[in-house]
Write a structure and sequence with these properties.
27% of the residues lie in helices and 21% in strands. It has 14 helices and 18 strands. The chain starts with 13 loop residues before the first helix and ends in a 6-residue tail after the last strand.
Length: 568
Amino acid sequence: MIFHIIDLREVDDWLACVECRCRDPTDGTYLDFNPGEETGGVSCCANCTDLAGPTVDYRMRYNVSYADISEEEVVTNVQMLTADISPAVGRAIEFDVPMYEYIRAGNAKEGMPRIQRLEREGPFNELFKMEFFGDDYAGPETVKFLRCVGHLHIAAIGMWLEDAETGSVICDGEGSYGQNPDEDKGFLTAIKVHSHDPPLEFPADRRVRLITEYNATEFHTGVMGMWFAFISSDVEVDRASAALKVDYCEDTDCNPFMLPDVPMMKCEDTITSHPMCRFGGTCSCEELVIAEGSEGCGGMYSVAEGAIAVNNVCAKHCDACSDEVVVANAGCADALADSPMCSFGGLCDCEDFVNAPESTGCGGVYTSEFGEISVNDYCTKHCDACPEEGDGPSQDELIQKEILETMEDYLAKECVFATPECKDALSNLHSCGSNLFQSLNIMDQNMRAVVTDHGIRLAAEHAKLGAASLHRNEEETTVPLCDAINGAATESQTAAVEEESQGSPGVFSAIVVASTFALIIAGMVYARNSKKKDGEEDLTVEKAVMVEATAHGDLNGSSDHAIDDEHA
């Protein structure tokens, strides 16, 4: 949760203050609305009171509900999605509500010209992004919709999510306001939370409509209209996988087949430098595409050591280069549109960014309350600050940068939970990174450089699951040898069997019988869980959503979400 607390003591124009209205740099007065100009939002937030005291202590309370996962239980993970209304007016995250007489054509509610009504319509899997405006939708093809929570600012009437085909309301996010003149009059104090129990199911490509309505009787700046939706990910998690830390180990060898493939700088076949050539003897693309275990161009080649995409090593042969090539001058491009300045500050054009009052122009810095940033770093091409040929990064450096990013992305997706696959990936990467194995010599030189320089660090970082704050002040531990762990477990089990067997010739038979009985019980538990998943799926989803949902309202699904300031 993020809190934005503003001191309003002895502030006359409280609305302009809480909306972070931009001020005239010459006299400090609040700017009036000018269509197309930046007039307010998080980039203009400042202290509005001149008071130096007295100091006021605030305490905030979190109510967190949770349930332990038992040894035999399996729950379904909940996935958060986000959608934003601001692109309807060409913005990202924040937008303004002009006074009704300045509302753009088509943005006023029919028959009610003093209400700004914004709409976005499209497939659900295109409007909603993973987590907090992260990657494109990658959830199940059939959405199991659990809950939605709206985020609005002062002057919001409400927001809705509708089925564009039927007009039915999927989410109702109506706002309510305080009425006490001495405490909260005029403040948005709650937004309705909408839950579906059982889950509402529909295809991921179902067309939906996002709607927000704001009162435009007066001017408002830096408002928002976002949906936070919670769906079933269809990913099942058991007690072991729910651990916050992955217990990986250092193996006695490094398996290069388990590492991501090396990106290409140009359209060529790289099979001759791949481990499958040096290690397995397959060095020709013609042989690879028809080899046993190969699905040909566009498919996978699978052997005992692992699997690789055929196109990754035979791009030219398979005519698959267009989207795979790393552009040599990739560093010479403007990155402003993908930066927080655009997402949160609304500065998405280098011309505006370079000439902003807070900027000293190309070659200089942009100064805000959050610090200084180099203008050329975000507007490299615009400022003609691209490195001269020979002065920039080498081809190997660019490839290694791309390999590192690919590896980060791979580990982030592989290690969402503490699964055996995640443990194997981290153990192998750590082992390869120790640079002790002959198998490193068969790697591509750039992959070898990245693994030896970053492998141990990446494994340690991605072994810590969940929010970084959960691992604060943790002491670093020595990574044990895999053989030592496996050997200790085997030794312990053997010793237990030998100790119980001494003096009782029938004990060993009893252990065998008990073990068999345990397997039968395990089979019964699995069958019970399978039946539960088939016949009582809603209960499983409800347990899964419990941790996420209670941070946003009552599990019964009709409660309001009370807040203390103008954000909801």
